[in-house]
UniProtKB/TrEMBL annotation:
This is Glutamate dehydrogenase. Transmembrane segments: none annotated. The record marks 146 as: Important for catalysis. The lineage of its organism: Bacteria, Bacillati, Bacillota, Clostridia, Lachnospirales. Pfam families: ELFV_dehydrog, ELFV_dehydrog_N. The active site is at 106 (proton donor). GO terms for biological process: L-glutamate catabolic process. The keyword rRNA-binding does not apply. Substrate binds at residues 70, 94, 353. PROSITE patterns: GLFV_DEHYDROGENASE. NAD(+) binds at residues 190, 221. It comes from the Bacteria.
Length: 420
């Protein structure tokens, strides 16, 4: 099933369903079905062993109707054009649902960072940046971190772009190191937004947060910060995983100890982590645990027609982009399992990226408290508006989020008279 899965079909389906509810004609949404710009690049790199390897990369701008394209860069072996297209479109709707002045874009390089040295990753980043330089810029398209990339990679992008332009340009990329104009709070922002959203939905459903059980799939930037902040908020994180599999303790995991172990060395894997009361489970088993909240924070297509009937969680908070397929969505809705959609739940990252860009272009800096407070205000307001619309229209939260986002994108296109 995973091989034939095309995430861009998922995007088109939800957009078409939302358009039908909004009463839009095919012409109203025709332009939204096609990414505005797609660039495929070849990236020759001299590897540490002296051989030359040519990596394939992409930068795709789905929409710039509401502002410059915005979205992360993924370094992962499974990167492909349809995945980047879907990720770019999700960015368009994510920025619209939280109402920040951006369109959507995404980039990726087909590579496995776990098998590359730091020198090789830096060489890929520099050559990739040079290749996509005609498309990016603070007013055109602003990359950020995603799977397999981090603040260091963003710093190399900023440096390469600045070298090409002949002067320092902080605002070309967000999620940078603090020394290069990175925003305080950006590293934790996506997970912090996931935590705010989880607390918001629990409150609406009348479930107390204290002691509520959570399973988190993924222990990278988003998974680890989500687990940490949910743990600090009083929830009981009973399972977490990385690419090697997961660990489970029904009495609750020692999240600080696990995160210190993972942070100590990038080669540390959860399959080698042992603690009293903890059992090792697969990523598939983690998704089917008897928990109240499931937080998928790894890749797309994790909850699909093959396992949706087996999900025991009452509530899924999508920290990853596209973890649930359209088929699974229908099954979960019929089973009464609430899904807080990716474009809302994981929007904290791009919201703080927006704050970083605003600070960069104005040459000002905000405190971490200011950033976190403004983030909470935006996440809470977006959640409330989606929740209220969902109640009014009797739809899922995903549909509620798309109704708001699609209307904003169509209104912007129409105000610009993008179609003749
Ligand atoms: N970074 C950001 O700001 C944002 C990210 N997102 C989304 O969140 C998700 C995670 O991104 P991020 O945390 O940045 O990425 P990271 O690269 O930091 O972490 C990815 C995590 O997923 C694990 N993983 C990789 N492959 C698999 C697999 N096949 N099964 C289970 N786990 C796997 C990785 O394990 P290992 O480390 O062992 O390889 C790692 O724990 C993605 O969907 C991304 O698009 C959404 C909004 C913003
Ligand atoms: O911070 C950003 O600009 C985008 C982060 C991202 O790629 C995402 O939200 O999926």
């Amino acid at each position: 099933m995973k091989q034939s899965y095309n995430p861009y079909d998922n995007v088109l389906k939800v957009v078409q369903d939302a358009a039908a509810i909004l009463g839009y004609s095919d012409s109203d949404i025709e332009a939204i079905k096609y990414p505005e710009r797609e660039l495929k690049v070849s990236i020759p790199v001299r590897m540490d062993d002296g051989t030359t390897h040519v990596f394939q990369g992409y930068r795709i701008q789905h929409s710039t109707s509401r502002g410059p394209a915005k979205g992360g860069i993924r370094f992962h072996p499974d990167v492909n054009a349809d995945e980047v297209r879907a990720l770019a479109a999700w960015m368009t709707f994510k920025c619209a649902v939280v109402n920040i002045p951006y369109g959507g874009g995404k980039g990726g390089v087909v590579c496995d960072p776990s098998k590359l040295s730091e020198n090789e990753i830096r060489a890929i980043t520099r050559r990739y940046t040079a290749a996509i330089a005609p498309l990016i810029g603070p007013e055109q398209d602003i990359p950020a971190p995603d799977v397999g990339t981090n603040a260091a990679v963003m710093g190399w992008i900023m440096d390469t772009y600045s070298m090409l332009k002949g002067h320092c340009i902080h605002g070309v990329v967000t999620g940078k190191p603090l020394e290069l104009g990175g925003a305080l709070g950006r590293n934790e922002a996506t997970g912090r937004g996931v935590m705010f959203t989880t607390l918001n939905i629990l409150k609406k459903l009348g479930i107390p947060s204290e002691g509520t059980t959570v399973a988190v799939q993924g222990a990278g930037n988003v998974g680890s910060v989500s687990a940490k902040l949910l743990h600090e908020a009083g929830l009981k994180v009973v399972a977490i995983s990385d690419v090697s599999g997961g660990i489970y303790n029904p009495d609750g995991l020692d999240i600080p100890a696990i995160l210190s172990y993972l942070a100590a060395d990038r080669r540390n894997l959860l399959k080698d982590f042992n603690e009293d009361g903890t059992t090792h489970i697969s990523n598939e088993e983690l998704l089917e645990l008897p928990v109240t909240v499931l937080v998928p924070a790894a890749l797309e297509n994790q909850i699909n027609a093959g396992n949706a009937e087996k999900i025991q969680a009452k509530l899924i908070v999508e920290a990853a982009n596209g973890p649930t397929t359209s088929e699974a969505d229908e099954i979960l809705a019929k089973r009464g399992i609430e899904v807080v959609p990716d474009i809302l739940a994981n929007a904290g990252g791009v919201v703080v990226s927006y704050f970083e860009w605003v600070q960069n272009i104005q040459s000002v800096s905000w405190t971490e408290d200011e950033v976190n407070k403004k983030l909470k205000d935006i996440m809470d307001a977006a959640f409330e508006s989606v929740w209220d619309l969902t109640q009014e229209k009797h739809t899922t939260l995903r549909m509620g989020a798309y109704l708001i986002a699609l209307k904003r994108v169509v209104d912007a296109k129409s105000a610009r008279a993008i179609w003749p």
